Every structure is written in C-alpha cells, then in structure tokens.
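Chapter summary example.
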Amino acid sequence: MLLEKQIQILVFKVDDNTFENIGEVNQYDSLIWPDKFNGYASFELWAPITEENSEYFKKGNILWCGGDNACIIEIILSNTDENGQKIYKVKGRTLEMLLTTRIIWGAYNCVNKYSSTAMYEIVDKQCVNPSDFYRKIPFLECAEDEQFGKIISFQKTGGEVYDAIESIATDAELGFDILFRPREKKLIFKVSEGADRTILSASN
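The structure predicted for these 204 residues follows.
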C-alpha cells in the first residue's frame, strides 16, 4: 500500500540488559513493512547514508512502526541510486526469527494436548525459562494459553524451535507472533487462530 507521507520508524536496542529507544529514522526513501499471521516475514528499507542513519542501522537493532510487529535488522548494504545518491538497503525479519536462534535442547514430548499448549511449552522451556539461563531470549514472555487447535501428540528431539513451532501451527491452522511491547519492555509470544492477513507495502 502506498502512503502519501512517511510513517514513524523508531529504533530500539534490546539485549540482555537493555531495552531502550535510541532514536527515530527521520530520513528514508522507501519502506516495505510486513503484516503476517504465521511465522516471520521480511522487511526492506531504503534510506540515505547519513551519520544519524549510520548509528541506527546496526545488526540486531529493532525497528518499530507502531502496532504489534517489530523487525530485527540483519543485513545492511550500501549502494548508489540512479541519481548518484549513496543509500542504505536495510533488510531483516520480524521478531519471530528469534525462535530460529534456539534449538530444542534434548527432547520434547507431549501426549493429548492442544496444539497451542505444545507451542507454548516449547517456547517456554527453550526460550523463556530454559534450564540454562544463557539460552533465554531477553525480555521474552509467553501469553496465556487459550487452548487453540487440535488435540495432538508430538515428539521432537533437537532442531530449531522455530521449525517445531511452525510445523505444529501449520498442521493446526494456527498463527503465532512475537508481539512488541516497548512501554512494558516485553516481547510476548502469542498463538492465535483466525484468517491470514496480507503483506503490507509502504512507501513515502
């Protein structure tokens, strides 16, 4: 969707000890911002190379345009556009990609549980309250389990947390998100049911 004016892009630094808004991107040329239902989606941002943007566009920083979704910067490329202007092309994915950074440590087994319950249990045990503190994803919490989906039995040993969650969600026609809550300084893993939403593209 084309917008007549730029939307606000706030930049956050989030790590083990920090959850901080470090500024706002005041200069950019074009933005593709995702809305999604199941798993991560990608964003792209084109912006001039300035001293301010150089401070904001760093791997691991989070971009937020309001709402539930936020994106993690993963790739920063520099280039020259057709007018000779030096620009950044910044790419990354929504917060659900954090689940790709953790594996299922040991084995997970569930018998006759709701699909959503299995998803919450995996994320809680591997990312929110892991036995090894250093495997915890900073500021991540789980929403309340509303018991969606089918009754399943599921077993998984090793592999990415994300792949296990996506497999259960796809089979049960569920969605999942990591919601960005800057005021509370929280990232909230939430399972949902309902229709898929479309990808939104925005450009100033």
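To summarize the output: Helices lie at 51-56, 115-128, 161-172.
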